[in-house]
Amino acid sequence: MIEALTPPPDAVRTRRQRSWYFYDWANSAYVTTTSTVLFSPYLTAVAKSAACPGQDTDLACHTDLHVLGLPISPGSLAPYTVTVSTIISAILLIFVGAIADRISRPAHLLGVFAFVGALAASSMFFVAGSNWQLGVVVLILANQCLGASLVVYDGLLVQISSDDERDRVSSRGWALGYLGGGLLLAVNLVVMTMHDSLGLSTGEAVRVNLLSAGVWWGVFTIIPVLGLRDVRRVGPAVTGSLTAAVSGSVRQLRSTFAELRHFPDTMTFLLAYLFFNDGIQTVIVSASLYGKEELGFGDSQLIVTILLVQFVAFLGALLFGRLARTMGAKRAVLLSLGLWTLVVFAAFFLPSGQFGLWLVLGVGIGIVLGGSQALSRSLYSRLVPTGRESEYFSLYQAMERGTSWFGTLTFGLVHQLTGSYRLSILALVVFFALGAVLLRRVDVERGSARARAAG
């Protein structure tokens, strides 16, 4: 009778995977609505209100804010805040990964980070008037919690799926994330468009949408936290206090960096990911700027483009998950990098004002966006030692966040030197080329064998 009540391993694994998918769905709403679309322009408007009270926030403000005694232009506050947040993440996440691998119930730790992050994201509703300081604090806190939760979440991929399932599982998670983020963004845009009919000012509509992203993140996190609560840390149990876990994690980090040279394929993959992910992130961040300043599209056209990319990326992630079954994850990622290069060249030659061709380009971005990110995660999961998944995924996340300013710096410098956004976008080809060259050197089978032997 007891056996009948105990689900078979396959059924348990399937249930866990379905729960795991929903954290992509949960956090993508914050990434899309808050990080990508709404918060930076809104924080800039609040900063302008503080520096130039009574002035229309659409106009340039030439009075500086003062942060720790340093003069800061209101228009630079948001990117500076993101830069500080990124630098903190690059350092913090490495420690988070080491600690996470010493916690017996990773889903509980995922919940702690996610719920605190969702609370910070929801608190953006209270950023109003001239209170830019609160905006800076909650943005940094939410971003740290997002990064920390993703370290734990990515590490769980290894524990809920077998080697031959990971490409499919990772791809479905990314796909669901794009779908969830796109659905909430569509609702948010309706609220923004109809704010007068709803009795809301523009600022109030933005605050309501920011609140919705935080609530969405928190509510849907309940599904993976409950669904993965029976997942236990792989390896011997760790006893002692949290202080002991932290001190033990520091010692473990030293050994991790010392032994990384014994995993050359893992290290080469991280270097490859550093370059090609930086190119991807720069295209995402700079696409709206390129479309507006170089091609002359309006805000509404750019919003339509963002929605299109979100929903196509849902299909792209599933498509590349299928391709990985036939050609392998590494070849599928290399294919995506080739397609990214074609997208960049197409953007370089795209005539100004051709919105139809711009949407076709958006479809291309969506197809390769989901696939390249989802398969990179699953491919890397094969190269990490068993029982130390979060620790090694913290390096993965740190590589993504700690170097994500290289591409944007290149983009900005090329424009400053040449005055052309077309040459700026073309310069990103270098990142995809270097990433592809390094990725071709990764021997996945050899790296996976070494990781299993070490675990």
Automatic annotation (TrEMBL):
Signal peptide: none
InterPro entries with a match to the protein in the record: Atg22-like, ATG22/LtaA_families, MFS_dom, MFS_trans_sf
Location (main, coarse): membrane
Gene3D superfamilies for the chain: MFS general substrate transporter like domains
Compartments reported by the entry: Cell membrane
Lineage top rank: taxon: Bacteria
Cellular component GO terms, alphabetical: plasma membrane
Residue ranges of the TM segments: 77-100, 107-128, 134-153, 174-194, 206-226, 270-290, 302-320, 332-350, 356-375, 395-414, 420-439
A GO molecular-function descriptor: transmembrane transporter activity
Cytoplasm in keyword set: no
Bilayer disposition of the protein: Multi-pass membrane protein
Domain Major facilitator superfamily (MFS) profile: 265-455
Keywords per UniProt: Membrane, Transmembrane, Transmembrane helix, Transport
Full protein name: MFS transporter
Organism: Dermacoccus nishinomiyaensis
